[in-house]
Amino acid sequence: MSIEENLLRIKSTIPANVSLIAVSKTHPADVVMEAYNAGQRVFGENKVQELVGKASEMPDDIEWHMIGHLQSNKVKYIAPFVSLIHGVDSFKLLKVIDKEAAKNNRIIPCLLQVHIASEETKFGFSPEELKLALQTGEHHQYKNVDIRGLMGMATFTEDESVIRSEFKMLKLLFNELKDSYFKDAVSFREVSMGMSDDYQIAIEEGTTMVRVGSAIFGLRHYT
User: Fold this and answer.
1) Which domains, and CATH codes, for the chain?
2) In this structure, what are the phi and psi dihedrals at residue 128, rounded to the nearest 5 degrees?
3) pLDDT, tens digit, for every residue of 78-122?
4) What is the pLDDT along the chain (223 residues), one digit of tens a residue?
5) 17: helix, strand or coil
6) Cβ-proximal residues to 186 (8 Å cutoff; 6+ apart), any chain
7) Spatial CB neighbours of 109, under 8 Å, sequence gap ≥ 6
8) What are the helix and strand counts (H, E) for the chain?
9) What's the CA gap between 80 and 86, in Å, rounded?
10) Closest by CA position to 115, among listed 137, 92, 88
């Protein structure tokens, strides 16, 4: 199937209240343009260098999402244009994003990444760490970031019950934080969970964003 056919097939399985982020990492701009020409306007990259390169080559009406682990010293490169940063895994990083956003006279939307998987290799706050961090109220002093919600990655497993329980936990945590810390924040409404292999489960568990790559573009191209 072509990229356009894959994209249309995926879109047909996603309800209107869920955003599709086409994960274009490792695929060259000319390949990504096939999805753009089929109507896709939101793309996700996990490496800053690749994100900056594609943003400079491709049309200006694209929303670029940074979905991978973000190092503090790389924030300045994407601060002028990034539409959403998914992987904010510390308040130290949030502070840097706020500073770089201010330099660009922007407010940058962010998601707080929660470690929901059993694998140690995943990044993110533990639920307990995140609650303690929010209790300090430190996030209120950052005027150039807008915390939009949470992001999480499930364990890489074929056991659907494990994946479902992890997604369920993230959605429950989102609800708890919304009630406790973001009750008046209208923009705190996003839960980013679900990828090519598990996005249907994520939809059933209340995600608002799915990050789909290989199901649209095929296997990754590594150089």
Assistant:
1) 3-217 (3.20.20.10)
2) -65, -45
3) 999 999 999 999 999 999 999 999 999 999 999 999 999 988 766
4) 899 999 999 999 999 999 999 999 999 999 999 999 999 999 999 999 999 999 999 999 999 999 999 999 999 999 999 999 999 999 999 999 999 999 999 999 999 999 999 887 668 999 999 999 999 999 999 999 999 999 999 999 999 999 999 999 999 999 999 999 999 999 999 999 999 999 999 999 999 999 999 999 997 655 5
5) coil
6) none
7) 83, 84, 85, 145, 146, 148, 187
8) 9, 8
9) 16
10) 88
Residue type, 35: A
Q: For residues 202 and 145, what is the distance between their CA atoms, to the nearest angstrom?
A: 26
Q: Where are the alpha helices (DSSP H) in the chain?
A: 3-11, 29-37, 48-57, 75-78, 91-103, 127-135, 160-181, 199-204, 214-217
The structure tokens 């503090």 sit at 72
Relative to beta strand 42-45, strand 145-152 is unpaired
Is residue 94 a contact partner of residue 64, using CB atoms and an 8 Å limit? no
For the record, the structure tokens of 27 come out as: 């695929």
